[in-house]
Amino acid sequence: MYTNLIRKQLLKSITKFWHLQSIKCSVRITNTAHSNVDQLKLKSTFGRKARTYCNSYTEASNQRQCSDINNTRNGKETSLGSYETEKVNGEYVVNVNDEVEGDENVTIKNLLYDERQDDIMELLHSCENCAELNKLVLKFADRLKKEHVIQSVILMGSLTKDALNENLLRYLLTRLEPYILDLNINEASCTFLYLRKMQVPKTHPVMCGLLTKALDSVNDPLEFVDLAAVSQLAVAINTGRDFFTPILCVNFINRIHKYIKKCRTAEDARLLAICVLNLQPLIDYEILNAFKERISILLQNGVISANCPKVIIKLLNMLNIGVWSHKNTALIRDLLTALKPCVKQLEGNVLKNVCRIYLYHMEPAALHEPLAVALEDLLNREMSPEALAYFVPFSEPVRRNALINTFKTFVNSSEVWEHSNSTAHLFSALRALKISDTSICDMYWNRVLKELNYASETDIGQLRFLRHCHRYMHFNNNLGGTYRHLGVEQRLSQMAIRAIKYDVFGRIPQIFARLASFVFAYGHTPHYVKKYPNILLSKIINMAEQFTPGDCFLISRGLYISLELRYRYQIPPLVNMQLATIDSVLASCAERCLNISEENQHSLHDLNWLVRCLSNRKTLKNSVIYHRILAKYKDVKCDDLNSRILKDMAYIFTTTNYLVPEILESMLEYITNNYEHIGDFNYMNGLSLVQACLALCFYKAISQELIDKVFCVNFIQRVENEIQMCYSKATYPERVLNLVMQLNRSVCLDYPECNVPWFQQNFIEAHVSNKPFHESTFSRDVRKFLETLLQDESYFRCNHVTPYGYQIDFVIHFDKDKKAIKAPTETTMLHRITKVAILLLKLDSFCENDLKALRGPDSLKVKHLEMMGYKVLRITEHEWNSKYMNANQAKRNYLKCLLQITN
């Protein structure tokens, strides 16, 4: 049985690596190799194959197909989750609760038949529960026709029920079997769907007959098949995850092409969204793009609007799955914008879904305020962990303390922890609130540990604990590694290593990468202080060819955390050897991914993961492959940018010190063309606003309106409130105040016409006095040669601070004859002298790929010093300490040439 289970799970994992072109090719071959007559002959053959397929499947793996594992494979949490890795490994996610029962104005009871058809149908429609239905079926047993039996099945699957009446279900299945051959496609697909929802085994003869009948109709090119029937059948096949969709549904694609061309109504779009979502492994970008074009047309024509929110939600769910979400950002934004007028009227669960999508894409800005109001109303009506988790990102800083108290109440409530998915919602709230009180953190993780200790074998086998691994790693990063819960680490490490060794999921690369990442990070295995478990290395080597960029990132991230927590001061020899092996695997995976991409257009999504993967390893940051990957940013197309991608790109270019003008131009163009969709002044925190304004000053692009908004009492009060409420008082206040000083300086120098006063002098003086001057070896060496060259220490100043707070390493004054002189005391002489500022620059002052291009802060400093009358000269540490500078008199001659001294 274990061997069979492995085989089935491996078959499932193969789906990910099923090359889409081969599927497309098989469709084309099917269409061209056989005439219509041949296809009609093959119809019964396929039916027999489908029946055999149904009978050959066992139920052994059903319990393994849980939604949590599917979410884990997609890099998603079951709730809000964590945005850092939400899109790491995107496969297709199908919601088995998809609505396929007609449009909003048609009830489930009227799905197939009109209630006025006859008296029995009218009575069936009047049933309110399964008990009434049971009595009615028994009463009219001798008068039931095909339509009555089918309607009874639909009602039984949709009515609110205390308990499923198994006797009634068996009776209906018995009555249904003789009618199977007489059913049309709508009846067969709809009945099959509702029986699947009632968990009737797919091996039941009636189920095999219904599936065969439905598939024969779909595969018959001469038979008309309604779009609703195809959507119902697609959902039914995916319900339970026990069919191999690419095989059973391969011939659906021809019909999807035709449906897209004929799509004219909102209901057609909704049904197509359900089809595309459930048939994702068979959908290529040609089909997806055609559907997106059709949706855009319907949006422009007003066919899809706020009047049909359920349609928009269906489209959003389809477009936002991990495998292609990054390709659909513009359309997702347009659909979210269309929802704005009806946000307040959305049901709670729908509102949360919209909120999750908005928070990930961070657009459109116009949706922020309506969502904030609607979520606050929801929180007032539904005081629950889930409502709190969604509301916190929209809350103002002044409400933080009240929300923390609400969170504490939830954490201490036993009833709350009994609700489904409360762990995920509480974590989302805890993480968003950025609570640094370790006692509150302990409350949460103690309950998680209790849940882990009492977990059933089924839960452990389904890897439900893996979501806790994901959360803990991100939570730890949120507090900068200062908080640890050893009990949770130990328990999760034990469960992860057990799954790696003995579970089938330890053989699936995507799942293994997540398990291994946690074990690498926190250890708690035998000899974990001296080395990593050997099984991790052997599996990494064996799976190397199957790792995606996201998998590589996860492994490298686990290594990074372990080096910070366990091996910061000393790396044992065994660990060094293991790290070298893993580094070689990561580098080869990155190169493989890069070479594959060479044939196609590079994806920002994959490049970002590869850069972050290699950036986690210092030994790989200077590798050839690292610079090759960074260089590929020049070739990438920026068709689908959004605020989330802009944020990720800004983070990557900031941390890598890499300059790609082409990408920056695309980002700037996107901001210029879509400024109304980007989070505006009211929804950004003070730190982000000041950073944005400073960047605009650098490019001389800040507006008078924005300057007035920043340099006013309201904004200063807003920043002070944020500082008071911030969770990281050790660093955040200093960062904000320092940036405000820089912005004040930039506006005073670059925009004197705005008449903004310089009010940071006290801050500058306090900062200088609190930070004593420490002369580096580099500075001492340059000073020594300047003394020799100028022959008088009074001819230059060290560590000079300008009126606007810029620190200059050395300042030298020259007269009109280019001779060094003492600093003049009279301001009337300034026009007759030259002030030279010498800046000592280290390697991190330059871009990674251009050692002549200064990074933003240093470039701005040079510009401002020149505006203040200085002639700025630069001495770089890497050049000063180079080999050719060690020659006799080389450094002295270098300084003479730099200062243009002739004697």
UniProtKB/TrEMBL annotation:
Q: What is the organism of origin for this protein?
A: Glossina palpalis gambiensis
What is the recorded name of this protein?
Answer: RAP domain-containing protein
| Source superkingdom | Eukaryota
Sorted alphabetically, which SMART domains does this protein's record hold?
Answer: RAP
Domain RAP, by residue range, is 836-897
